[in-house]
Write a structure and sequence with these properties.
This is DUF4376 domain-containing protein. By secondary structure, the chain is an alpha+beta fold. The chain folds into 2 domains: 2-71, no CATH class; 77-200, no CATH class. It contains 6 helices and 6 strands, in the order ββββββαααααα. It has a 3-stranded antiparallel β-sheet, with no helix packed on it. Strands 5-4-6 form a 3-stranded antiparallel β-sheet, with no helix packed on it.
Length: 210
């Protein structure tokens, strides 16, 4: 019994073995042809996982032994790339959530507030704000609602909101550029060591000042 080119050879029987990202043990039994057409049962066991054994009557199964199955280079590289890409995505999400409250509803509120603030400043510049303060407050609730909280005047509130939004979007753009470039470099790596080096080389941008 031997393994050649990821195939288990038992006398004149050849059995294809899976291409795994990690090394494993191949166990083989001779079993009745009624249980396996080729008369053999093969179990591939990865470290830490239970070994599969024949389900036929144990008295009819003869254990032939075990052989080491080396990790497949292609599978190991693919697994390393997938793991690194997932970690890059996860870190980008963590960094994003550090500067904005996660959740689609919260993001919708931020975007609405930004749009209202920009609209207020555009109307202010154009001299198109309603003359009545109550009407202005009704037209721009996200701005007037933060007077005395974010800043002391509607204009200062609006400018603060826009400045924060601009900083956040710039950070988000930088974050996305780094994320995509990191995954590109990971995907181009020729071996697991190259994958690790590409992942380690990812340099995340600093978050905007609070």
């Amino acid at each position: 019994m031997q393994i050649v080119n990821h195939q288990l050879q038992i006398e004149d029987i050849v059995i294809d073995l899976p291409r795994l990202a990690v090394a494993a043990q191949v166990h083989a039994w001779a079993v009745p042809a009624a249980y396996r057409d080729n008369g053999h049962f093969v179990s591939v066991q990865v470290a830490g996982q239970p070994m599969e054994i024949p389900a036929c009557d144990g008295r009819d199964a003869q254990y032939l032994g075990a052989l080491a199955l080396e990790a497949d280079a292609g599978a190991a590289l693919a697994a390393a790339k997938a793991g690194a890409a997932a970690r890059i995505d996860a870190q980008a999400e963590v960094l994003c959530n550090q500067v904005v409250t996660p959740g689609s509803a919260q993001m919708a509120r931020y975007q609405r507030k930004e749009a209202i603030a920009r609209s207020y400043l555009a109307a202010l510049t154009a001299g198109a704000l309603p003359a009545d303060e109550a009407a202005r407050a009704e037209a721009y609730p996200a701005v007037f609602g933060e007077v005395g909280i974010t800043a002391d005047t509607p204009e200062a509130v609006a400018r603060t909101i826009v400045a924060m939004a601009d900083a956040w979007w710039a950070y988000g753009d930088a974050l996305e550029k780094v994320r995509l470039a990191g995954k590109r470099d990971v995907g181009a790596a020729a071996d697991p060591a190259g994958v690790a080096a590409a992942e380690a080389a990812v340099a995340w941008p600093d978050p905007p000042a609070a």
